[in-house]
Amino acid sequence: MPALRSHQTMVAGVAAAIAQRQTDVRDVLAAVTPGGGKSLLPVIMGAALMRAGLIDRICWIVPRDSLRRQAEEAFADPRWREALGHGIALRAAENGRDPCRGLQGYVTTYQAVAAAPDLHLQEFRRHRYLLAVDELHHLPAVADSGTAVTAEDETAWSRSILPLLESAAARLLMSGTLERADGRPILWLPYRAPQGVRRVREIDFKAPGWAIVGYSRRQALAEKAILPVTFGAMDGTATWLDAERTTRSVDALSRAGENTRDALFTALRTGFAQAMLREAYRSCREHRAKRRAATTGRPGAEHDGAGLGKLLVIAPDQETARNYLDTLRGWMPGAQAARMAQIAISERRDAQEVVAAFRLRPEPAVLVSVAMAYEGLDAPAISHVACLTHIRSRPWLEQAIARATRVDPHAGAYEQQRAVIYHPSDMMFERFRQMVETQQGTRAMVKTRRQHELPFERTVEAEPEIIPLESNATALRFAVVAPGPDFGNPPPGRDIADRPPVAASAKDGVQVPSAVEHHLRQRIGQIVAAQVIEDQDNNLVSEGPVSYHTYNAVLKRCMNKARSEMTLSELEAALGWLERNRISDHLHLIADDPQYRWSSRRKARGAGAVTAFSKPARRPPTPGTGKPAS
Q: Is the pLDDT of residue 439 over 50?
C-alpha cells in the first residue's frame, strides 16, 4: 500500500472510528497546507463510511469549475483504488436531474449549488451523503451577532450550502487556510468566545462532535510532501502621474511607504514587469535545460517532456495578462511561441481546456492567468511562478505560491526539485512572508473593519486614477522561506527518509467518469450523423424528413431518455443499439409527436440556408414537362 502522510493517516483513523461507531464525531476539519495532499481525504473518508453502510453517496463541492476534474481523478486513481480497496466513482455534474447518474456521488461547484439550491437539497434528503467542501475559507458565516451586516451576494454561496451541511450524514471540511482576508468567521466552523480587548476568536480545537486535523508547512516539509520555497524579491523604481496629473516617483518599491499602491500599479504594467518576466522566463528555461540534460539517458525521456519544469505567470488583470503573453511569445522561436505559451482568462472560451493541457501535457510550458489557475491547480510540473499581482492578502498569496510547491514524481530526486517565486519587493509582500513564518492563521475578527495597512486585501477593487509612465528593476535578492509553526499541537517526532508516492495523474491512462460520458455522447452523435448522411445519399428513406434533428428525436423515443441525461451504462446501451439498428426504421415513433413538430417548426423559422444535414429542396415540376424547374 502506498504510504499515507500524517494527516491522511489521522483522517483514516477518524473515519475508521466513525465507521465502527466508536465516536459521535460527524464533522472533520482538515487544515492542510496548500500542496500537502488534501484531495485524497474525501477518498479515504468516503471509502470507510460507505463500506460501513453509514452513507449512500458522496458530494464534493469545489470553488471553481477547473477543480471538478481533479476531484474526479482523485477517486479514479488506480493506485489508491487498489490500496484503499474501493470502487467509488464520482462524476462532474451539472445542475440536472440525478447528478450521480448511477455512480456513487458527484462533484459540483459553489456557483452551481447557489444557482439551484433546492435541486441539491432534495438530493441530500433522498440519500445519506458525505459532504466534502473544498477551500471552505471562501464561505463566510451566514449570521454573526458581532459582525457588521454583509451584502447579500457575499453570503449567497454560504446560504445555499448551509442546508446541505445541516442535511449531510457526515461532513469533511477542507482548506489550505483557516483565516479569511476580511477577518470574518468561516461558515460552520466552531469558534471559541472572544477574549481580550482585541475581540479575536480562535477556532475551538476541542469542540464536541468535531475532529480537527492539521498539517502545517513544517510537517509537510519534514515529510518531503512539499518543496521548500525560494523567493526572488525584485526591487525597482516607478514613475507615474497622479490624479492631479502631477509626476510622482519612488526610488525603490521596498521603501515606497504610502505610495506603495500606486508604485506597484505602475510597476506591474511597465518596464519593471517586463524585467521580472524576463528573469523568471530565463530561470525556468535554464532549469528545463538542466533537467533535459539530466534525463537524456532515461528511455523515452527525450520525447515525453515530463519533469522539466513549467512557469506560471499571475497577472493583475486580463488586459495586462494578454500583454504579458505577447511579451513572452516574443522571446520564443516563432514556430514554438503559440504552442509553448498560452493564456487562461475568464473571457477566453477555451480557458478550461488550456488549464487542463497545462496540468497534464508537456505543452504548454508557460501559462499566463489572473485568478483561474492560482487556487487548487494541481500541476506538480510548475517550478517557477511570476507573482505579478497587486493582491496581498495572506490566504490568496499562500494559494498562489503553493502552485510551485508540489512534488513532481517525474522531476527526479526531491533535493533536485525547485519552487521559485518571483515577486515585487514591496513591504506588503515582506509582511506576508513574515506571517507565513510566524503565524498559524486560524483566527477571525468579531467585528469587520477595514485594515488601512493592507490596501491590497480585495481581489476586485477600483484601479487608482493614475497614469503609469515608467518603471525599472534595480535589484534581485533570493531567500528561502522558513518552515513556519506547527498547526495546533506539535506532531510526534518522525524520521521519514522517503516521501510518499504521488498519486498518478490522468495522463497515465485514468479515465474519469465525465470524460467517458463525453466520449460516449460524441460517439453516439457521430453514428447518428453518419446514418443521416448514408440515408440521404442512398435515398433509403422514401417518405418523411431526414435530418440530424429528426434522427436525434427518434433515438430519444427509442431510448426513452435524452443522452444528456443518460448514465454511463445507458450511454453504452444506446451505442450498442445504434450499432445493431437503423434509426430510419423507427421514424414512425415521431409521426404524431407534438413536441417534435413544435421543435421542428422552431428550427424552421430561421431556415433558409442549407445545413450540413439537409438536402436542398426540389422545386415542383414545370407544368407539362414532369421535370423540375431549372
A: yes
Contact in structure between 55 and 49 (CB atoms under 8 Å): yes
At residue 502, the pLDDT reads 38
Higher pLDDT: 497 or 230? It is 230
Cell 477518524: give the residue. 14
What is the grid cell recorded at 24?
Answer: 459521535
pLDDT at 503 over 80: no
Question: How far apart, in Å, do the first and last CA atoms of the chain sit?
Answer: 76
Query: Residue 21 above 80 pLDDT?
Result: yes
CB 555 within 8 A of CB 532: no
Q: What percent of the chain has pLDDT over 70?
A: 80
109 — phi, psi (to 5°)? -120, 165
* pLDDT higher than 80, residue 292: yes
Q: What are phi and psi of 545, to 5 degrees?
A: -75, 150
Q: At what angle do helices 6-19 and 41-51 cross, to 10 degrees?
A: 20
User: What DSSP line would sit under 482-498, residue for residue?
Assistant: P--PPSSSPPPP----S
Least confident of 181-185, 558-562, 599-603: 599-603
Q: Confidence band (pLDDT; 50, 70, 90) for 432?
A: confident
Q: 194 CB contacts (<8 Å, ≥6 apart)?
A: 146, 200, 201, 446
Q: Which residue has the cell 500542496?
A: 35
CA dihedral 251, 462, 110, 351 (to 10 degrees): -70
What is the SS3 assignment for 446? coil
- Cβ burial, residue 131 (10 Å; 0-12/13-18/19+): buried
Q: Nearest 5°: phi and psi at 567?
A: -80, 175
What is the Cα–Cα distance from 374 to 397, expressed in whole angstroms? 9
CA distance 95 to 123: 11
Q: Of 331, 454, 332, 299, give the one whose Cα is nearest residue 392.
A: 454
Among the listed residues 302, 163, 226, the one whose alpha carbon sits nearest the alpha carbon of residue 32:
226
Q: Which residues contact 338 (CB under 8 A, 6 or more apart)?
A: 329
Q: What is the dihedral of CA 202, 207, 209, 213, to 10 degrees?
A: 50
Query: Do residues 368 and 343 touch, judged by C-beta distance below 8 A?
Result: yes
pTM (2 d.p.): 0.71
d(CA 225, CA 219) in angstroms, rounded, equals 8
**Buried b or exposed e, range 340-365, using 16+ CB within 10 angstroms:** bbbbbbeebeebbebbbbbbbebebb
In degrees, rounded to 5, the angle at the alpha carbon of residue 364 between the alpha carbons of residues 358 and 366 is 90
Query: Taking phi first (over 0 means left), then psi (-120 to 50 degrees means alpha), and beta for anything else, what does residue 507 get?
Result: alpha
User: What is the C-alpha to C-alpha distance for residues 428 and 87, in angstroms, rounded to an integer?
Assistant: 47
> What is the chain's mean pLDDT, rounded?
82
Separation of alpha carbons 32 and 608, rounded Å: 59
Cα 590 to Cα 593: distance, rounded to the nearest angstrom: 5
Closest C-alpha among 40, 42, 37, 20 to residue 168: 42
Whether the bond into 364 is cis, omega within 30 of 0? yes
Alpha carbon distance 428, 253 (integer Å): 10
